[in-house]
Amino acid sequence: MAMELRRVWPAPTKDPVVAVEEGGVKGMVEGSAVVVVGRKGCCMSHVARRLLQGLGVNPTVCEIGEGSPEEIVLMDEISEMDGGDARILAATMFPVVFIGGKLVGGLDRLMAVHISGELVPILKEAGALWL
Questions:
Q1: Which residue among 3, 58, 62, 106 is least crowded, i.e. fewest CB within 10 A of its CB?
Q2: Widest CA span of the chain, in angstroms?
Q3: Distance between CA atoms of 57 and 102, rounded to whole angstroms?
Q4: Which residue in 115, 116, 123, 106 sits closest to 52, CA to CA?
Q5: DSSP label at 9?
Q6: Distances (CA, A) of 78 to 29, 40, 124
């Protein structure tokens, strides 16, 4: 009787959704290759996350409540990181995606970069993909 071997993968121990910590979004962006910032329960954030996971990237996801004081602070911080124009983007285009410390944009921009074939090289350059 032949013995069948099965590999069992452990369940992930860390939730990929994180809260904004003391360093804020800037600290999170500097500390992670890929960051997705979006509203809690937003289907667009889910799509951005799944697209990146499908490519083999495990993005850091930051979810905030819509209309919360945290949202305003977060938008101001994103705006400062991009020279003032990102507040309009963040207010209308959640999720906001950062790769390699740089603002990529919303889901529409992420999809455009993916469709054009530029996303994988950008992810490799940022150190989010090794292959």
A1: 3
A2: 69
A3: 16
A4: 123
A5: P
A6: 10, 18, 24
11: number of Cβ within 10 Å? 5
The span from the CA of 115 to the CA of 67, in Å, is 32
**Chain segment 89-112, per-residue pLDDT in tens:** 545 568 889 999 898 988 999 999
**pTM of the prediction?**
0.75
Exposure pattern of 102-125 as b/e (b: 16+ CB <10 Å)?
ebbbbbeebeebbeeeebbebbee
* Contact between residue 60 and residue 36 where contact means Cβ atoms under 8 Å apart: yes
How far is it, in rounded angstroms, from Cα 97 to Cα 29? 10
Give the Cα-Cα-Cα angle 32, 79, 108 (nearest 5 degrees).
70
Secondary structure element (H or E) that encloses residue 34, with its range: strand 34-39
- Kindly give the residue spans of alpha helices, DSSP state H, lying in 1-131: 24-31, 43-54, 69-81, 86-92, 107-115, 119-126
